[in-house]
Write a structure and sequence with these properties.
With 366 residues, the protein is an alpha+beta fold. The chain is built from nine helices and 17 strands. The chain is globular.
Length: 366
């Protein structure tokens, strides 16, 4: 964990650990920076105070989505051997914003980055009729905190918060990531009508050969195929499978996801899909299948079902890997861009990441 400035005030409930440089750091409960206005407070993400403050702020925010759920992201962070801190920006006793800093250690460096399966950095902003744009002070305070304490910070924002990119100031690089979104209530009654001809033919040829049903018991098999697919691509997942099974079960119990499986007439498992649900929006979240037409058939059945149930949007969650993006494009969705912002204060760390990326690309091409 990075060293906190001497000007910080540390709360009375404390624990001590080493930051990797031999310096003992004291933290737990909260750390406040009274010299900043507004005040930045750092809490352990699993603390009751963090959960209560986050939930209260989230209810007053107009930019809510599935991936600013503190409980969900904390689970995913732990499953990927990452850590998290909840950062609150408070002014005159009122929380203006909260950001969940999910970070990992890479050698001697600390990088804030969203965990896998979380497309947008978890952040909630207070909405107020008196102050309809609370971004300026809140984002400036977050910027100072993050850049001071971490070697590299990667923030991805949902499209509706794109204007926040202008408030981050110098030292930040920005680019765009992409996803595909299918507006279900604008599609044809027969959803396959809007698909590419080849995908439509594949679906119609194999649809009767597979039975697609909701089946939460298929979660472990879906995760196994999902992990295998990443391993085949040369980018193996470092993830706790049992923790992911527990997360999906927790979501399903709380109506946060639906699990679909496809089986052959002989009972053989062909694949499945975990759909994350957030009101009228559904997300293509965790997918795994054996090579072949199974995922096309699963998507055809699931999209048709969700449309009939009144779901308005199906987000494919990413269109940034060419081969996968092409598969998703054939279902007729709209391409949506969202901003990614990067700040780094270590040239050595950047060079190391660049070398690692180049090596991964060469390995994948073999």
């Amino acid at each position: 964990m990075p060293v906190w400035p001497r000007s910080s005030r540390i709360a009375t409930s404390v624990s001590t650990y080493c930051d990797g440089t031999g310096t003992l750091i004291t933290l737990i409960g909260q750390v406040q920076r009274p010299l900043l206005s507004p005040t930045v407070t750092i809490l352990e993400s699993n603390s009751s105070e963090a959960q209560q403050r986050w939930a209260k702020l989230r209810t007053s925010s107009s930019n809510r989505h599935a991936f600013d759920s503190l409980a969900l992201v904390a689970r995913l962070t732990a499953a990927q051997s990452m850590e998290s801190r909840a950062i609150f920006v408070n002014e005159s006793g009122t929380d203006l914003a909260a950001f969940l800093a999910t970070f990992r250690r890479v050698g001697p460096f600390f990088e804030v980055v969203p965990p896998r399966l979380v497309p947008f950095s978890p952040m909630v902003l207070r909405s107020s009729p008196e102050d309809p744009d609370p971004l300026s002070n809140a984002v400036a305070a977050l910027r100072a905190h993050l850049v001071d304490r971490y070697h590299r910070v990667v923030i991805t924002l949902p499209p509706e918060l794109e204007k926040a990119t202008a408030l981050l100031g110098p030292g930040w690089k920005s680019d765009s990531l992409k996803t595909y979104v299918l507006p279900l209530q604008e599609t044809s009654v027969d959803v396959t009508t809007d698909w590419s001809a080849s995908t439509r033919r594949l679906y119609r040829k194999h649809a009767r050969q597979l039975t697609v049903d909701e089946d939460p018991s298929a979660t472990s098999a879906i995760l196994a195929l999902w992990i295998e697919a990443y391993a085949r691509s040369g980018t193996p997942l470092e993830i706790d499978t049992k923790a992911m099974e527990d997360t999906v079960a927790w979501l399903h119990h709380n109506a946060g996801c639906r699990v679909f499986s496809a089986v052959r007439p002989d009972g053989g498992f062909e694949g499945g899909l975990v759909v994350l649900m957030d009101g009228d929006t559904a997300y293509y979240w965790i997918a795994g299948s054996v090579p072949g037409p199974a995922m096309t058939v699963i998507l055809g059945r699931v999209i048709q079902l969700l449309k009939a149930e009144g779901v308005t949007a199906f987000d494919f969650l990413g269109a940034n890997t060419p081969s996968i993006a092409e598969f998703k494009r054939r279902f007729g969705p709209q391409l949506i861009e969202y901003p990614r912002l990067i700040a780094s204060r270590s040239r050595i760390f950047e060079a190391m990441l660049s070398a690692k990326h180049s090596l991964s690309e060469r390995t994948a091409s073999l």
